[in-house]
Amino acid sequence: MSSVRVLVGTRKGAFILTSDGARKEWDVSGPHFPGHEIWHVNGSPVNPDRLYASQHTEWFGQQVQRSDDGGQTWEAVSNEFEYASELGEHYWFDGTKRPWAFKRIWHVEPSLTQPETVYAGAEDAAIFRSDDGGKSWSELVGLRTHRSADEWAPGAAGMGVHTIIEDQANPGRMFAAISAAGVFRTDDAGESWEIKSKNLTSNFLPDPTAEVGHCIHKLAIHPEKPDVVYMQKHWDVMRSDDAGESWDKISGDLPTDFGMPIAVHSHEPETVYVVPLKSDSEHFPLDGKLIVYRSKVGGNEWEPMTAGLPQEDCYVNILRDAMAVDSLDECGVYFGTTGGQVYASADSGDNWEPIVRDLPAVMSVEVQTL
Amino acid sequence: MSDEAEKMIRVKLPLHLRRLAGDEDASGYSGEVTVSVRGPVTQRSVVDALESRFPSLTGAVRDRGDGRRRSLVRFYACGEDLSNDDPDDPLPGSVASGEDPFMIVGAIAGG
């Protein structure tokens, strides 16, 4: 029988939640790296026992931890993230310019095909690649030196690369998203990038349809339909049917379209999940009701999933990297909250149960189907 | 003792750095590590030796980019805060002789 391993990064350590395919009984391992912010934990699709964790504190900086036994033991690998060319400048919150400075790794994305290759999304915005399992890193410099880079500015959490998606059907194609610069695509394995902003509108910008400055919160694709890209923007849920060349708003009948994560069903490319929040000023569920919205038709028509989720007095946040799906026959959907709950649905979102209720604030959730 | 003689320097690490170092001998709350320094005993030479013995601490005490002490890390010895001394100033003689530890301290801050 297949099993699942849920990789959870929290403000105070990492946790690994495992279950058999029934997803009813869970074993909880952790905290790993207790006391440290674990921005992201992710596993290699090629070698599922190979995990990476981005560990950070303001005190002791950035570490990258690697496991080769599914998270039982870990070793620190290289934390040398050196920008590969002259540092440009980007806008700071106060409108002045500041030079790029490495702060932390937001997201680690192991290659879909190469067991020793992994990408790391950094703040200040850049993507680093390792081909030796994290022992050394080199920058995909074409992103940070994009012609628009001197107009980039941080979102409230900083200016980091939070989304790196490989398109397995089109080798060399990757999507990346930066808060709050925009969404970018490469077709040459990261040598060069194009910004993909057509039809994006953000009313907080002086020019709402500007090419640069849209606060992309998360992207998701389905591997069998990779030209369809779903986006949770600051406000607006969006969809592209042409690999980012243009975007259409699919918020439809959502009660609010502000949110952080977005995920696609593992077997149904037109089934998509979001967790709307009240607003950009109030990052918690509307009316204290935690609701996952599911569209089975690729957007616009959304159904509220409430069974097993708190429907009163719930004021948690669900961060951008804190939602994932497994690939068992009946798709499992998972998300974590800043209140320390990790919720799981073993039936595509119809019913939910908390796996754990009292972890530190959850920063990221990934799922491995074993 | 000549400058070139090998000197064993006691270094006291905060819990998180002891764990990151992965040094079993230093896993307790009172644990220290010992590093070998040849030449002048300074902040720089001691932290260089620490990073050489425990490569996983590279970047955790001093910033990877500019080599400066991380802002929430402080250096103490003999009851004195040496954090803002020149990194190439000699450390107290009792640190160089192994009588007192060089203390790397994480700031009390955060939630």
Number of strands of chain A: 30
Class computed from helices, strands and strand pairing of chain B = alpha+beta
Strands of the widest sheet of chain A, in order across it, are 3-2-1-30
| Count of alpha and pi helical runs of chain B | 3
Number of structural domains of chain A: 1
Number of domains of chain B: 1
Shape of chain B: globular
Strand content of chain B: 15-25%
User: Order of strands side by side in the largest beta sheet of chain B?
Assistant: 2-1-5-3-4
What attributes characterize this protein structure?
heterodimer, A: 370 residues, mainly beta, Methylamine Dehydrogenase, Chain H, 4-stranded antiparallel β-sheet, B: 111 residues, alpha+beta, Ubiquitin-like (UB roll), 3 helices, 5 strands
Overview of this protein structure:
- The complex is a heterodimer of chains A (370) and B (111).
- Chain A has 370 residues and is an all-beta fold.
- Chain A has one domain: YVTN repeat-like/Quinoprotein amine dehydrogenase (Methylamine Dehydrogenase, Chain H, 7 Propeller), CATH 2.130.10.
- Helix content of chain A is 1%, strand content 41%.
- Chain A is built from one helix and 30 strands.
- In chain A, the strands form eight sheets. A four-stranded antiparallel sheet of chain A has the order 3-2-1-30, with no helix packed on it. A four-stranded antiparallel sheet of chain A has the order 4-5-6-7, with no helix packed on it.
- Chain A starts with a strand and ends with a strand.
- The mean pLDDT of chain A is 97.
- With 111 residues, chain B is α+β, with helices and mostly antiparallel strands.
- Chain B has a single domain, classed as Ubiquitin-like (UB roll).
- Chain B contains three helices and five strands; from the N terminus they run E-H-E-H-E-E-H-E.
- Chain B is globular.
- The N and C termini of chain B lie far apart (46 Å).
- Chains A and B meet through strand 6 of A and helix 1 of B.
